[in-house]
Amino acid sequence: MADRRGLFITIEGPEGAGKTTQARLLAAHLQRRDPTVLHTREPGGTRIGERIRQILLDADHREMARVTEMLLFAAARAQFVAQVVRPALEAGRLVLSERYVDASLAYQGQGRGLGMETVGRVNEVATGGLRPDLTILLDIDPAVGVRRARATPGKEGQVGRGDRMEQEDLDFHRRVREGFLALAREDPERIVVIDGHGDPPDVHARIARVVERFLQERGWPPSS
Fold first, then answer.
1. What Å distances lie between residue 32 and 29, 36, 220, CA to CA?
2. CA 82 to CA 92: how far, in whole Å?
3. What is the DSSP letter of 108?
4. Among 166, 171, 86, 96, which residue's Cα sits nearest to residue 130?
């Protein structure tokens, strides 16, 4: 992989953990210092990725096979890395993404039972080995998170029922959470766990402290 000057931060977590809210708050916080900070998401972030997102989250697609799901996420991610993330990093920008490879490891590797090693190999190809520099993992009790997610308007699923992933049973969401926490235990230098149960401003304050400390260590933003 070519050397890069930018930084790549991701926000992860189970359903209803507050990823979108916290990503927006963090993006606004960072953009006050550097307006070139790129806030994006996946699956999505590109025209192709958004089309794949619609397929993945459509509640009518209940027949989707586990391997199909894994490969669709990886396909959207490959486009996302090639079209959005690498060019921004090569231009020296900070990229903040809602979700990345850790989500597939937790959801398809642990939640669907495909195995983290298998999912990891597929995503190594999809991303060319590109890893985040820092990951904020918002942790939440699955029962609380799923209830929140299903009740949130403005998302892909019907309010009260949720999208295809949110409609999975509680055991699935418990396995996903276990997958995320296992990843955090394996890579504590990169993944910082933040309790997502609190009020959004309080959660944001904790995230901001972690990110500011990380950026200070990395000397960002660089002096011109």
1. 6, 10, 13
2. 16
3. I
4. 86
Residue 196 makes CB contacts below 8 A (sequence gap 6+) with: 13, 17, 18, 22, 138, 139, 140, 145, 203
Cβ neighbours of 16 (radius 10 Å): 24
In this prediction, residues 10-23 reach a mean pLDDT of 95
- Write the DSSP symbol of residue 66: H
Measured CA to CA, the distance from residue 27 to residue 24 in angstroms comes to 5
Given a contact cutoff of 8 angstroms between Cβ atoms, the answer to whether 211 and 136 are in contact is yes
Partners of 139 in beta bridges = 195
Task: Give the model confidence (pLDDT) of 102-151 as tens digits.
Answer: 999 999 999 999 999 999 999 999 999 999 999 999 999 999 988 888 88
> In angstroms, rounded to a whole number, what is the distance separating the alpha carbons of residues 34 and 128?
28
